[in-house]
Design goal:
Layout (H helix, E strand, L loop, with lengths): L5 E2 L2 E9 L3 H13 L5 E5 L39 H23 L9 E3 L2 E6 L1 H14 L9 E3 L2 H7 L1 H4 L8 E6 L3 E3 L1 H14 L3 E4 L1 E8 L5 E7 L4 E12 L5 H8 L8 E12 L2 H4 L5 E3 L13 E7 L2 E11 L12 H4 L6 H10 L1 H12 L2 H8 L12 E4 L3 E7 L5 E4 L2 E5 L5 E6 L7 H12 L4 H11 L11 H14 L5
Helix pairs in contact: 1-6, 1-13, 2-15
Protein name: Probable malate:quinone oxidoreductase
EC number: 1.1.5.4
GO biological process, one term: tricarboxylic acid cycle
């Protein structure tokens, strides 16, 4: 498949990756290991990688294992708690841990503590109805091998022992409940992206920063052609590839639309911005060592579930609380206010209007969030940390999240929370839409991409893939022995304890 790097004025590659976040760098590192002879280029419009959604301050860094995120374990109409989505996400995060462990051993990633740290994950609720839900969730989850080590308490003193800030200043008249997993993590996806980018550059991948791709079109030779602008030099040129991955976060929708593939028709994007309260006061940060998730407010999107998180960024410890959702029409933090209106097409107009009509409560919620003062935001924080003082917390703006709007099986427009892989029928182009739990499950998503886009090669790659990820193609929740082996091995390599 290998091509020469350039032919006359058009630079030719086997693979072009658009966007420099966790998705593109993960795919690039996987492909370079599977096919070292392939000629690969990465185009990123900013001056470095991991500066949008992968940046540690633009996401929660949770390492989504479905341990504490209550929206992954909904209560059904029959009253039961569904664990199916949580099991799927937890299995995928174990895949991520295996791949990162492999890369640590191979020297692709550096010292584990530069990108992953052990951190308990706690779910915390209050009030009779919510405590009953968490109790039922506990019993449902502990029946699954992936979650059999869950702990649960409804004793305020025990909660305070797990996370002192939660108990300090809290009246004991309101019932509370908490569930805990001690083997949770905090992940810096920006650090992983940068380390993978450094590896790719050392392996001969053309890493082109300050390079913006303006559109995609299919050439008569079947290759994908694109116009690229070197914004630093003010120069334009053409590039082409046999395979293109659009991992441009909020910028992926417009690029996939420009490609004209049938598979993108009907898709739209709903941008949601976010803010967090942050403190670096050591007297506070040293007393909280956990990620604590609660329940979302009525009408709030799942991505707006409130959480109080310990963060480890560049060796410094801090606490972050939020998110406080907002609305902006730009699809990227460094995007344009015209992103949303310019994304409207004839094929997605009706689905987008249907989504708007069906989600008036979401619009109302966003308007209320935008209007919240700093004082009101601190009041929300006090639900978790009753003694929070406003002067000790600063407000930071997180990354943009573009939720997927699409037609469901009945042809009606729906708003989807999650990650959507879009690939052309012939597998020559693929892209990613949506948000959480995206970054945490990047390796699994990229393996799914390989199966869809490279069906003729996946079998020959399988031995290498199984070396990279021992559980490749298997379901850990169905194989408790393998789950134990994999968990123990990755914990040792990633220095996460037993």
């Amino acid at each position: 498949m290998s091509e020469s790097a350039s032919t006359h004025s058009t630079q030719r590659f086997d693979v072009i990756l658009i966007g420099g976040g966790i998705m593109s760098t993960t795919l690039g590192a996987i492909l370079k290991e599977l096919q070292p002879d392939w000629n690969i280029a990465l185009f990123e419009k900013l001056d470095g990688v991991g500066k949008e959604s992968s940046d540690p301050w633009n996401n929660a860094g949770t390492g989504h294992t479905a341990y504490c995120e209550l929206n992954y374990t909904p209560r059904g109409t029959d009253g039961s708690i569904s664990t199916a989505k949580a099991c799927g996400i937890a299995d995928q995060f174990h895949v991520s841990r295996q791949l990162w462990s492999h890369w640590v051993k191979e020297g692709v990633l550096g010292t584990p503590r530069t990108f992953i740290n052990a951190l308990p994950h706690i779910s915390f609720v209050w009030g009779p109805k919510n405590t009953q839900y968490l109790r039922d969730r506990y019993h449902a989850m502990r029946a699954e091998p992936l979650f059999s080590h869950i702990e649960h308490t409804e004793d305020l003193d025990t909660v305070a022992g797990w996370a002192p800030l939660l108990g300090r200043g809290r009246a004991d008249t309101t019932p509370v409940a908490a569930s805990r997993f001690e083997d949770g993590t905090d992940v810096d996806f920006g650090s992983i992206s940068r380390q993978l980018a450094g590896h790719l550059g050392a392996q001969g991948v053309a890493m082109r920063y300050n390079h913006e791709v303006s559109g995609l079109s299919r050439g008569t030779d079947g290759r994908w052609d694109m116009k690229v602008k070197d914004t630093a030099a003010g120069e334009k040129f053409s590039a082409s590839a046999r395979f293109v991955f659009v991992g441009a976060g909020g910028g992926a929708l417009s690029l996939l639309q420009s490609s004209g593939i049938e598979e993108i028709k009907g898709f739209g994007g709903f941008p949601v911005s976010g803010q967090f309260l942050r403190t670096t006061e050591s007297a506070i940060t040293e007393e909280h060592h956990a990620k604590v998730y609660g329940l979302a407010s009525v009408g709030a999107p799942p991505m707006s579930v409130p959480h109080l998180d310990t963060r480890f960024v560049e060796g410094r410890r801090s606490l972050m609380f939020g998110p406080f959702a907002g609305f902006s029409t730009n699809f990227l933090k460094a995007g344009s206010y015209f992103d949303l209106p310019l994304s409207v097409r004839g094929h997605n107009l009706i689905p987008m209007l249907q989504v708007g009509a069906a989600n008036t409560s979401l619009v109302t919620y966003l308007m209320k969030e935008v209007a919240k003062t700093h004082k009101k935001k601190v009041e929300a924080l006090r639900d978790f940390y009753p003694e929070a003082h406003p002067d000790q917390w600063e407000l930071i703006t997180a990354g943009q999240r573009v939720q997927v709007m699409k037609r469901n099986e009945k042809g009606k427009g729906v708003l989807q929370f999650g990650t959507e892989l879009i690939a052309s029928a012939d597998g020559s182009i693929a892209g990613l839409l949506g948000a959480s739990p995206g970054a945490s499950t990047a390796p699994s998503i990229m393996f799914k991409l390989l199966e869809r886009c490279f069906p003729g090669q996946i079998e020959s790659w399988k031995p290498q893939l199984e070396n990279m990820v021992p559980s490749f193609g298997r379901v850990l929740n169905e194989e408790p022995k393998l789950l134990h082996e994999v968990s123990a091995a990755t914990s040792a390599t990633l220095q996460l304890g037993s």
